[in-house]
Amino acid sequence: EQEGHSRPLIEQARQHLYRGQCNCAYWHGAFGGLYLPHLRNAVYRELIEAENLLELAAGRAAQWVEVTADDYNFDALAEIRLAGDRLVTWVEPAAGGRMYELDVRSIGHNLLATLCRRPEAYHEKVKVGEHQHGDGTASIHDRVVFKQKDLDQRLQYDRRLRKSLIDHFWEADASLEQVALGQARELGDFADGVYQSKIRRNPGRVQVQLIRQGACDGRALTITKGLTLSAGSDELEIAYLIEGLPADRSLHFGVEFNFAGLPTGIDDRYFHTGNHQRLGQLQMRLDLRELRQLNLCDQWLGIDVGLTWDRPTAVWTFPIETVSQSEGGFELVHQSVVVIPRWEIRGDLQGRWSTVMRLKLDTSLAESRFNESKELSAT
Fold first, then answer.
1. What is the distance between the alpha carbons of residues 364 and 379, in angstroms, rounded to a whole number?
2. What angle do CA 302, 308, 310 make, to 5 degrees?
3. pTM for this prediction
4. Going along 145-234, which residue ranges are E strands?
5. Which of 21, 147, 217, 295 is spaced 20 to 30 Å from 48 by Cα?
6. Cβ(17)–Cβ(46) under 8 Å?
């Protein structure tokens, strides 16, 4: 009986899987490809919906949570998956303990469908400029048309994937400009280092602890970061403990987050402080101090991404944009919004420093729209 009840759900999931295999977002060309965020988002939306249907077919409870470890990305190393009825996230202990996917089930959106900036062959044309195009007929792949000015000055490449929970130590005088341009000197070996992992399971609550014994500016330090998810929750609790800190001087520590699928340049996509006091559109470079909360709102998508901290926090924000090729020419394409909470940290009598932050993903606006549309269609 259960199998018969599940069969239609499995067939629906298969259809969403096939849609998620549409090739447009898996290649790179003048008329589509992975550089276009809306194509990546569409693929993830179908794949997340397929997974949602499979969970229904499996007869999951209304609220549930689990944590598992396996080689999910086929790199011969174990990753950790924290999954619940509201959120699913994956963490790579061997790559800086970073969070590399974060699926919001209710809207089928992966907030970490990010893209790092890499050299492309056509960037050589961008560096030369528009004047290089000679006489004759050019194909779409040979045309040199610039949809914005000074694109050659916007070429920039990343050292690592633009994901989240990336741990940085910088020089005390490192600036927002230097970090945004990738020019700030890294003093620690944590951003790309290998973290050991421990999994904890409690009824209705799971946690992964990530631990690295590393170094900062020649001094041995240990970072322990915990990521906790509860059943029925749209919030991740993120706790940090740093040990071995000097008592006689401060270290400049920051945690990098990247959020994808939140377009910039539009008034209904904006930063706010939790009470909807707007701080500007999501492409803004912000240097904020003494914050307890910062939100990124996308009214069109119907999501409000909120970060809160248990202590006053300084925050940097800046956009990640690629110089990409389309049928209309070369243009800037927004890829993600970087949010970096940062602190000047100093050890207590035991050389320790800690903080707790919470990442809440509020989709009530999107869900209310969905319910309204259902009511209208029923009348």
1. 23
2. 165
3. 0.92
4. 166-170, 196-202, 205-216, 219-230
5. 295
6. yes
Q: What does the CA dihedral 367, 370, 376, 379 come to, rounded to 10 degrees?
A: -90
**Helix, strand, or coil here: 336?**
strand
- 86, 166, 302 from 297: Cα distances, Å: 19, 22, 8
CA nearest to 280, candidates 265, 292, 290: 265
Residues forming a β-bridge with 87: 104
Query: What DSSP designation does 26 have?
Result: T
Amino acid at 119: P
In the numeric block, which tokens belong to residue 6?
């599940």
Q: Output the pLDDT for position 130.
A: 57
Indicate if the pLDDT at residue 301 is higher than 70. Answer: yes
Can you spell out the DSSP letters for 266-317?
Answer: STTEEEE-SS--EEEETT--EEEEEEEEEEEEETTTTEEEEEEEEEEEEEEE
